[in-house]
Amino acid sequence: FISICASWTFGQWGCQSNGSYERTRAEFEAATNSSMPLTLVAIENALPVGMVTLADRDFEGKTHLSPWLKSLFVHPFHRKKGIATLLIERLEHEALRLGCKRLYLITEDAQLLYEKSGWRAIDHVRTPYGEAALMEKALLPLIGARLGRK
Q1: Are 92 and 138 contacting, i.e. CB atoms less than 8 angstroms apart?
Q2: Per-residue DSSP letter, 46
Q3: Are 105 and 69 in contact (CB under 8 A)?
């Protein structure tokens, strides 16, 4: 699904930040050679409907923070079905499996979605798309997550 993920990413973010489709596609192709970046794709009826990526870096102004949840995208025809939440949860699980203790993200317009998944805003930044929340989530080991839930 490299072409589809590259198209979604470039269409949603790259075309507004002087990116190129070719560079975006090359990033996805290079990702198949290592554990990070890692892109998860949601499939419904054998078709890709959404994606999310775990990456070492995402925001130039915060290079000391790592790793990042980035490029959460659900196709407009498949929104409001809980797919974004499932992608977030699965990415958190994969990050924990890879030994990550916390994750970061930047969002201009989905802060509430992430807060519902336990993320918290720790700063505000400016991106090429406008004002954004810098968010963080501490990842709990699976046993701790189960015991901590009410």
Answers
A1: no
A2: T
A3: yes
